[in-house]
Design a protein that fits this description.
The chain has about 100 residues and is mainly alpha-helical. Helices cover about 45% and strands about 5% of the residues. It is built from 6 helices and 2 strands, in the order βαααααβα. Helix 2 crosses helix 3. The longest helix is centred in the middle third of the chain and has 11 residues. The protein is elongated.
């Protein structure tokens, strides 16, 4: 996923994170300067759905405008298949001192 907050904010005429933070506060969402900085310049690892909802209201957009799917990156993360193209059967490895599954 790509975080698209700055572009959507620019489309709404918001060019500074402090202005965005002020508008979020007017809408009822108090964000610390550090968290706002992370949302503004970074690619946040987490975001609360309640916060996302307020951001969407302030920017008059949908969550899909802020979170853009990148299927190419997902495809690049997949493990490559073996040259033969076949995958052998999966066999459980039983080690010493392991309990036996219930019968």
């Amino acid at each position: 996923m790509r975080w698209n907050l700055r572009m959507k904010a620019a489309e709404a005429g918001i060019w500074k994170s402090t202005e965005m933070r002020h508008r979020l506060a007017e809408a009822g969402l108090e964000i610390s300067a550090g968290k706002m900085s992370n949302l503004w310049i970074g690619n946040p690892t987490t975001i609360r759905l309640d916060d996302l909802d307020v951001i969407c209201v302030v920017l008059d957009c949908a969550p899909t405008d802020l979170l853009i799917c990148e299927p190419d990156k997902v495809a690049a993360r997949r493990p490559r298949k073996a040259d033969t193209g076949t995958v052998g059967p999966i066999v459980p490895r039983l080690g010493r001192h392991r309990s036996v599954p219930p019968a």
